[in-house]
Design a protein that fits this description.
The structure is a homodimer. By secondary structure, chain A is an alpha/beta fold. Chain A has nine helices and nine strands. In chain A, a hairpin with a 2-residue loop joins strand 1 and strand 2. In chain A, helix 2 runs parallel beside helix 9 and helix 6 packs parallel to helix 8. Chain A is globular, with a radius of gyration of 17 Å. Chains A and B meet through strand 1 and helix 9 of A and strand 1 and helix 9 of B.
């Protein structure tokens, strides 16, 4: 693992690191914010998964999360959204291939050799970070935006016990019923839709739910509102019933201006769970 | 004036607008954050001038200022750092020409026809914003980063009565004694150094000072520390003596991670002056 940059921020350090990933069979880059408290001992960890077209960098510079992470003494991890490189398969569309890993392990050509983002985020990157930094991996929570909100919800429900709380900004809630989902799950996992179900937050909510609190924020002015299928998750949460806050925020869109507006709430929400 | 984008943010609106500038003789783009309070009446205004290579956009998306502006009910203006366009003179260097206007009115070829950033920020843009938005131009303050810190300090001291308070992040404090200054002032204003003095915060501090409070933050780990000449301004402030806080922040560099870390303090500082 090599440092790319380390900048002092909010009393802690915002770092960027690269490493050779076994899961993705390429070099991967991630951002890690460590609060000042990490100089004295392991701190809880909040994962932040980004959306389509993003790298590790977008949320790291635009979401305003470090301010609140510093206040609560939390580490923040910003993984990339896919494998990268000239040898890695790609597609001309913005929503498939590099920048669009969808947090699944691809089984189909040409994606399978590198697109193993579930294993990368669920196993490889946590182990790497635990090895090199002062983090307490018994206290992890997860969040994300759009495709990353899908990732956060499905990882949280798919890995019972790993995360104490999950939140999401404008998450893709029901990808098996959306153009943001059917295309990618078909490409990465193949046409057998039974393989898709453990990558659909609404279906997982119907099946198992999450053993902890959930918070989602979605703007009523989101330009991609129909693709998110928020109503399906809301219904599944209420039917279960699952401990959750499904919030619709008047007039907000899909941008980082929306994300940063509610970041303070999300960090406070996760801090409550991580310090409980 | 045309809207480029308007995104709801922190209860208010982050807008981007373009207009034909008379001062710069080209189209200019600026960002404007209006807090929720602007829906009910005019709000005070904080100007934020950006540094070398920046457009209106960098601070707007990376400095985290809107959160605190919303808390204090302040508008934020993010002007561009120079005229732009194919017909506008430029230079291959990152620190001259487009993206590097230095907040002066150029008198020299090839810059004079468009590079009139002092007039643009001091007169044209305030008038335009006052005409179109719910802002109270009797309550203005100004801030900026690096070259923009230079701009904020020199505009504040050069326009007595226009700004109630001035702050800066890692400002270029003494451009007539720095490679970040001599090159640009020479190019834009010509070799007669007597024309440079009203664009040097240290010289202006020695001469006139500022009728209000000043706050500057500079990182001790700033990679451009020698270019900033912070010691010269600090000495001039102390000699005057001028009401001011000149703060050196341990370990911080020149990046937006540094800027965003201390943004909360700067917004509170300006709010104190604007609501006094």
């Amino acid at each position: 693992m090599k440092p790319v940059s380390e900048n002092k921020a909010f009393g802690g350090v915002q770092g960027v690191y690269t490493h050779a990933s076994n899961a993705c069979a390429c070099d991967m880059t991630f951002g890690l914010f460590l609060p000042e408290e990490a100089q004295h001992g392991p701190v809880p960890v909040l994962w932040y998964l980004s959306g389509l077209t993003c790298t590790h960098e977008n949320a790291m510079v635009k979401a305003g999360a470090q301010s609140w992470a510093a206040e609560h003494g939390l580490a923040l991890v910003f993984p990339d959204t896919s494998p990268r490189g000239e040898d890695v398969a790609d597609d001309d569309a913005y929503d498939l291939g590099q920048g669009a890993g969808f947090y699944v392990n691809a089984s189909q050509k040409p994606w399978a050799p590198h697109f193993q983002m579930w294993d990368y985020v669920a196993e490889e990157l946590p182990a790497l970070i635990a090895e090199h930094f002062a983090v307490d991996m018994t206290r992890q929570s997860i969040s994300g935006h759009s495709m990353g909100g899908h990732g956060a919800l499905t990882l949280a429900m798919g890995l019972p016990g790993q995360f104490r709380s999950v939140s999401a900004f404008a998450p893709i809630c029901h990808p098996t019923a959306s153009e943001w989902g059917r295309k990618q799950l078909g490409a990465y996992l193949g046409p057998d839709e039974s393989k898709w179900t453990r990558h659909d937050a609404t279906l997982m909510m119907r099946e198992t739910g999450f053993d902890g609190p959930i918070l989602t924020d979605t703007g009523t002015g989101d330009q991609f509102y129909e693709l998110l299928q928020t109503h399906a998750l809301a219904e599944a949460v209420a039917k279960r019933p699952q401990q959750a806050q499904i919030r619709l925020q008047p007039g907000y869109d899909h941008s980082y201006f929306f994300v940063s507006t509610f970041m303070e709430d999300h960090l406070a929400f996760h801090a409550d769970a991580l310090y409980a």
